[in-house]
Amino acid sequence: MDVTGLKEKAEAWLRADPDPATVEELRGVLARGDWADMADRFAGDLEFGTAGLRGVMGAGPNRMNRAVVRRTTAGLARYLKATVPDVTTRGVVVGRDGRRLSAELAEDTACVLAAEGIPAHVFPQLAPTPLTAFACLHLNAAAAVMVTASHNPPEYNGYKVYWGNGAQIIPPHDRGIASFISKVEPANQVELLSPAEAHARGLWSDVPDSLGDAYLDAILKLRVHGRGSDSLSIVYTAMHGVGGVWMERAMKRAGFSHFHVVAEQQQPDGAFPTVRFPNPEEPGAMDLSTATAERVKAQLVLANDPDADRLAAMVRDGAGKLRMLTGNEVGVLLGHYVLVQGPTRRGKPHVITTIVSSTQLGAIAQELGVAYDEVLTGFKWIANRALEREKAEGTQFVFGYEEALGYTVGTVTRDKDGIGAALVFADLAAWCESRGTTVLGYLEEIQRRFGLYVSAQRNFTFPGAEGAQVISRIMEGFRRSPPTRVGELPVRSVLDYKKGEKLPPSNVLAFELEGGGRVTARPSGTEPKIKYYFELKETLGSGEPVEAARARGEARLRQFIDAFIALARERGQPEVGA
To answer: How many helices (H) and strands (E) does the chain have?
Structure first.
């Protein structure tokens, strides 16, 4: 788009933008003549995709701002009225995290809903994402909106949408909502009721405190051991997010008397002053947690991301050093724990993971005779698959996880729940302590029975339109010429999920290897990256120390990764980009 076209787009935006702050911001960009910045802001509309919106905050249609949220909410409201006959009775839940602009975006959401005649059930205070998902079910709402950008950097915000079943939206609702949004009038013409008027008309109600109590009651019932501990020392970080007060309440009620918080990160702060990237997986994000754990001699460290839907865990190894568990290790521990140590269930238990997570949960499920599914990446697929099989087969969903630190136990929420999962993981650690073992000791028991699975992920970033072409070239190169072996390992089968044979079509390729290994390739849905997920299975020798087997497996894994990246280079991946 040339400068004249950008100026015309900007002027049209300025005429329709209801927010003085973004009007001033865009006028500043125009005054500076920063046309590269302007071109990015007007490259298109922020896509309504992965359960809603997410993007950098700022002026323009390709940014998160009040104008975009007002139009999005009007489209959502009109789609709900077209598809859910009782939406004006059931209403929509509105929650928000502690990020910049979250309060304004949540208020705009509620005010637009009210103007459309849809009651808004609004959290008056900050709310974790799993609490908003719980409220959708508990209040029998037609939908829910959570204003959050999860674990993204501070310049981001987002808008996550749940359907009335408590799960994040999937097709056809995502496409239907997007279609209605495209027909909405300019943002300054979208009607809103003021909060006072919405209250007066009965179209705005505050979510009561009793809902939070009901959530805590429900997640406390998920515990298996259920006895707490007077000796287990636990450190927790909220990562400047909204999970802190809820974890403190849950752990106190669960009977963990040595529960310590990372004070510098306990209070919500959308600037995230101690971390650049508030994701427990990122380098440096757990430094304060580690320091606190060393100071109080904690055996267990638990971390939520800022909206508390993810969980990370660190435990002590045999030498007394803290070790971060991988997302797959936490998933396997929790899955095995609730299946084997949990209450005897009538019917058929059901566990689910994703196509990029470890296959070990599937091996456990097969041996135990438990229903098992692998679904596309994203917790919305886990939740909706659980609901589908419950309805069709009467299965009982007990656990689901994805390797990117997302877990849920049972059906309290139909989304990942970092608070409930943290509580159950602490319960697991207390149970291990009561048996005279450790979390890593329990993991070793599982690995000796089911095999030691080692996994890793490699991401390569290729920005811009040219980068998108590079990523497409790599994927199509693997489709045209799939490898018959990766290093020394023969490829047993190739799965192309773009064909949509068992799952909804998705641009993902998986190469399954002899001996139980797998590599999966997929472009990121939110960033200019191609992601590779690697896993190999290592069998422990009789009496062999697990550390020796792990070292052997990780050495094989490194060679395996190098061999696959070489194959990617042959199919068009540049030498740069990581």
So the answer is: 19, 21
How far is 452 from 499, CA to CA, in rounded Å?
32
Residues in Cβ contact with 41 at an 8 Å cutoff, skipping those fewer than 6 apart: 26, 29, 58, 59, 60, 61, 62, 63
Nearest to 365 by CA among 407, 416, 390, 399: 399
Could you give the CA distance from residue 177 to residue 530 in angstroms, rounded to a whole number? 28
Given 102, 150, 229, 358, the catalytic residue: 150
Judging by beta carbons within 10 Å of its beta carbon (0-12, 13-18, 19+), is residue 16 exposed, middle or buried?
Answer: middle
Beta-bridged to residue 402, according to DSSP, are 406
Tokens of 424: 């159950």
For the entire predicted model, the pTM comes to 0.95
**399's tokens:** 């656990």
Q: Which residues contact 77 (CB under 8 A, 6 or more apart)?
A: 92, 112, 113, 116, 118
Neighbours of 180 (CB within 10 A): 20
Provide the strand spans (E) within 228-282.
Answer: 229-237, 256-261
pLDDT for residue 576: 61
Q: Cβ(417)–Cβ(309) under 8 Å?
A: yes
| 105, 159 contact by CB (below 8 A) | yes
**Residue 228, SS3?**
coil
- pLDDT for 197-241, tens place per residue? 999 999 999 999 999 999 999 999 999 999 999 999 999 999 999
Measure the CA–CA gap between 389 and 371, rounded to whole angstroms: 10
Other beta carbons within 10 angstroms of residue 281's beta carbon come to: 18
Instruction: Look at residues 18, 132, 116, 7 and name the one whose alpha carbon lies nearest to residue 68.
Output: 18
- The CA R_g of the chain, rounded to the nearest whole Å, is 24
Rounded to whole angstroms, the Cα distance separating 194 from 217 reads 35
Q: What are phi and psi of 10, to 5 degrees?
A: -65, -40
* Contact by Cβ (8 Å): 66, 46: no
Walking along the chain (578 residues) 10 residues at a time, the average pLDDT comes out as: 90 96 96 92 87 92 97 98 98 98 98 98 98 98 97 95 97 95 97 98 98 98 96 98 98 98 97 94 95 98 98 96 97 97 84 96 96 96 97 96 97 98 98 97 95 94 85 95 94 94 92 92 85 93 90 95 95 75
Q: Work out the angle between the directed axes of helices 66-83 and 173-182 (0-180°, nearest 10).
A: 120
Strand order from edge to edge, sheet including 371-375: 371-375, 349-354, 396-402, 406-409
* DSSP-H helix ranges across 360-417: 360-368, 379-393
Q: What is the rounded distance in angstroms from the CA atom of residue 122 to the CA atom of residue 111?
A: 10
What confidence score (pLDDT) does residue 577 get? Answer: 52
Tokens of 9: 């787009």
- Catalytic, 150? Answer yes
Task: Report which of 91, 85, 79 is spatially closest to residue 176, judged by C-alpha positions.
Answer: 79
**What distance in Å separates the CA atoms of residue 427 and residue 329, rounded to the nearest whole number?**
16
For every residue of 450-517, DSSP letters joined together read H-EEEEEEEEEE--HHHHHHHHHHHHHHHHHS--SEETTEEEEEEEEGGG-SSSS--S-EEEEETTS-
Ordered DSSP codes for 29-97 = HHHHT-HHHHHHHTSSPPP--SSEEEEEBSSSTTSB-HHHHHHHHHHHHHHHHHH-TTHHHH-EEEEE-
